[in-house]
Design goal:
Layout lengths: L1 H23 L4 H22 L4 H96 L6
Length: about 160
């Protein structure tokens, strides 16, 4: 029932508006139509000019936002570049430290290897000499013992 009243009200309003333009045009439907179009265009232009965010305002706002976004992007890029340069410097420092340490270890390692080789060689010679002496001594003892069994030995 409420929708019927709405449609009736809208219909009465439209007929009244049409009647007003028809009356002011002196009964000529073409003139009434032109007046209605003129009034509609005027009302539309007035409404558009009064609405917030018109084309000029929107353009101005867009430019402001673009400028802010550009500044933010620039600062982010600058910050990233600074951090990258800082990391590059740290990496370069660590590489040079590692190179220096490698050089020290290389020269020190070669020298130490030479020392250890000499010491080990000397110890090995001493051990072999000691072993040889022990073997010669035991061989001599064994020889004299076996010879004595067969009567060739050293008991006189």
């Amino acid at each position: 029932m409420a929708s019927r009243r709405v449609w009736t009200g809208l219909g009465v309003g439209a007929v009244s508006v049409g009647g007003y333009y028809f009356y002011t045009a002196g009964g000529d439907p073409k003139v009434a139509s032109k007046e209605f179009q003129h009034d509609a265009a005027t009302a539309s232009a007035k409404l558009k000019s009064e609405l917030p965010g018109t084309k000029k305002d929107a353009q101005k706002q867009g430019e402001e936002w673009a400028a802010k976004a550009g500044q933010k992007i620039d600062s982010t890029v600058d910050s990233a570049r600074a951090k990258a340069n800082e990391a590059d410097a740290k990496i370069g420092s660590k590489i040079s430290q590692a190179d220096a340490k490698f050089g020290q270890l290389k020269t020190g390692g070669v020298a130490k290897f030479g020392e250890v080789r000499k010491e080990t060689g000397k110890e090995l010679k001493d051990t072999i000499d000691k072993f040889d002496q022990t073997v010669e001594k035991k061989t001599a003892e064994a020889k004299s013992g076996i010879s004595s069994w067969f009567g060739f030995g050293g008991s006189k």
